[in-house]
Amino acid sequence: MNYLFFTNTPAHVHLYKHAIRELRERGHEVRILAREYTCTVELLEWYDLPYEVYGSCGTSKGSLLSRLPAHYARAIRLARRFDPDLIFGMGGYAAHTGALLRTPTVLLIDSEPASFDHTISTPFARVVLTPNTFRKDLGDHHYVFAGVKECAYLHPDIYEPNSSVRDRLGLDADEPYAILRLNAFGSQHDVGKSGITGTDRRRIIERLAEDATVLVSDEGGTTNLEGLPARPFDLHPALLHDVLAEAELLVADTQTMVTEAAMLGTPAIRSNSFVGDDDMGNFVELENQGLIRNVSSADEIRAEIDTYLGPDTDETWRTRRDEFLAETVNLTDVIVDVATVDGHVDELESVRQFGNHTRQEPASSVGVGSD
């Protein structure tokens, strides 16, 4: 079988990397179509995965929109040359390429607010897979798995931490450190959304620095750290999860890395304009499990830091993490199983049709907002 995977962001590389390796080991042909966006290609090179670049864009919304026609043209041309039997992706590129090639497509989605992307992509998919925390019905071909998409690479069955990261960072064995992760807000579903900006970044760094060394990971590269008690995260991006696993705390205005922290048992405070009554289901669930805290202002972040940098935090959060993960699947296994049945997921026990799963509803209204 020929399997084609779209990796439009670094998170997509992590999502599919283990499944791609497994399928190749089983003798299948696998190709990746990658968008050169932030460190996506760096990660593909690090993991030695077979890819071709269909296009590039910066972290601004205009950069993506202006290049869409060329992206589609090259992606379709490269896909036709490979002649896939099944396509995996997370949105329009994969779905529309599959439709034009008359190739079945599997979409793996975890963000309810991306309404426009859902509208233009899901009708063309053979199956749409989402976490069972997802609270938006995407049609009869919508199926759910137990967990979050980060279970494809941070589930304990598959993730092996790298204990050398403290040496690489030049940190002592017992030196506490915290990570501030800042989003570029350049995606289509980020239109009208914002995170931690300007003076608030400075105030948060100064508060974190009272108790820990502060590492800043800024996707947009706009934060000026001159005169601040912090330094940039400057290791290879493939080591970021290992650094996150050792951290005392993550403060972030992004989405994926907060969920990754929860999977690793690292306390996380999330703050952006998605937070509120219509927040995404996975973040409501993770907060209900005591793994993360969702707040809407920098003042709330600073107030929460005392709790998250308190004594015995490591043991408490890892216990909560273990309890949560006990009810989840290794998503890599699910992806491989979906591939081997050509997307006919009714044959699989690891997924259930949306509406037929038994997970309890979260305590709050969630994730049916639009872009």
TrEMBL record:
It comes from the Archaea. Residues 19-107 form the Glycosyltransferase subfamily 4-like N-terminal domain. Pfam families: Glyco_transf_4. InterPro entries: DUF354, Glyco_trans_4-like_N. This is Glycosyltransferase subfamily 4-like N-terminal domain-containing protein.
